[in-house]
């Protein structure tokens, strides 16, 4: 039995992974005749937020520095008080080894955002990480086309499976499987977060040393 008739997805997507997940959710919602609207956090943060009380809210964003990026955290911090059900999702670096998808690290992303949203009155119904193709090619090895296709297919079916449970009002806390590694990494998340903000993040952008070879474009998994 379907519990929700309307879904609002707030997504922040740097290179497309979180946006792709959002599109898949909307696709599965349409199959169930559920109204699903997508809003880019980069745009929505400048507008007033008005959500019907019977609407399921999904917030999805990539993880960097073992936390949500500042734009997402600031959006959650300014989110109005309410009582809606909320599902938190993130995309993190996924790699393929053999026929296995290696998990990334969520760190404190769900911990921090859950506390902020609960203080505002919301009920957290799920915490779901997705290990999408890593696009940090200056750090992670470039993925082959087969590896990217494998990761997309694996996550597509994960989204479908979780949506079936979510639409019927079920709770989905997949993140609990990684609770040990997330707790272990949490003490260094602040230092990494600062380094990610002022150092590592720059590795996503071309510097004056770029010679226009287009290798990053050709190998981008997104």
UniProtKB/TrEMBL annotation:
Q: Which residues form the 4Fe-4S ferredoxin-type domain?
A: 201-222
Q: Output the Gene Ontology terms for molecular function.
A: iron-sulfur cluster binding; metal ion binding
Keyword Iron carried by entry: yes
Question: Would the keyword Coiled coil be found if you checked this record's keyword annotation?
Answer: no
Q: Which SUPFAM superfamilies match?
A: Flavoproteins
What keywords would UniProt list here?
Iron, Iron-sulfur, Metal-binding
Q: What is this protein called?
A: 4Fe-4S ferredoxin-type domain-containing protein
């Amino acid at each position: 039995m379907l519990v929700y008739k309307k879904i609002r997805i707030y997504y922040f997507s740097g290179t497309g992974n979180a946006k792709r997940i959002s599109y898949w959710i909307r696709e599965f919602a349409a199959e169930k005749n559920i109204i699903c609207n997508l809003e880019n956090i980069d745009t929505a943060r400048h507008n007033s937020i008005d959500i019907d009380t019977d609407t399921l809210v999904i917030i999805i964003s990539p993880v960097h520095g073992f936390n949500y990026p500042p734009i997402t955290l600031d959006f959650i911090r300014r989110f109005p008080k309410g009582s809606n059900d909320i599902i938190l999702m993130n995309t993190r670096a996924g790699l393929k080894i053999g026929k296995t998808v290696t998990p990334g690290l969520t760190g404190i992303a769900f911990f921090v955002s859950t506390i902020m949203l609960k203080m505002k009155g919301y009920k957290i119904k799920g915490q779901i990480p997705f290990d999408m193709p890593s696009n940090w090619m200056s750090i992670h090895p470039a993925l082959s086309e087969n590896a990217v296709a494998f990761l997309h297919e694996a996550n597509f079916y994960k989204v479908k499976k979780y949506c079936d449970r979510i639409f019927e009002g079920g709770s989905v806390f997949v993140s609990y499987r990684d609770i040990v590694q997330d707790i272990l990494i949490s003490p260094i998340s602040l230092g990494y977060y600062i380094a990610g903000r002022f150092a590592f993040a720059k590795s996503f952008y071309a510097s004056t040393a770029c010679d226009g070879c287009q290798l990053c474009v050709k190998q981008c998994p997104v």
